[in-house]
Amino acid sequence: MQKGVSSDRAATLLAGAARPKLELGLRKAGLAHVAVPEMVMAYYADLLADGVESQSGASAGGLEALSTAELSLAWEWLLAMGVPEPEEPQAAWLAPVRQGMAWLVRRQGGR
Known about the structure:
The protein has 2 domains: 1-51, no CATH class; 61-111, no CATH class. It has helices at 7-28, 45-48, 68-80, 94-108. It is mostly helical. Mean pLDDT is 77; it is low at 51-59. It is built from 4 helices and no strands. The relative contact order is 0.10. α3 (68-80) packs parallel to α4. The chain is 49% helix and 0% strand.
């Protein structure tokens, strides 16, 4: 989360940070002549912050607040995003969804 800045400002900062990577990618692909389009970034971490668990325990409104059907849908989405299946079968959806979200954040966090 971008601390101390508004969501709009965080999105602008993230888009600005991504622009040089896109420019480099275009050059490496032999497309240096292609103009980099205006970039817009979505920033939503502030919307998720209330649902993030702290070390002291789960917060109200977090994954624990989801119904079994909602957890099942979240798991289907995570699988579509490439989250690996758990090595051991799970009796409930909460653990795989929590682990899958953590995996996805780690994998996508540097982009």
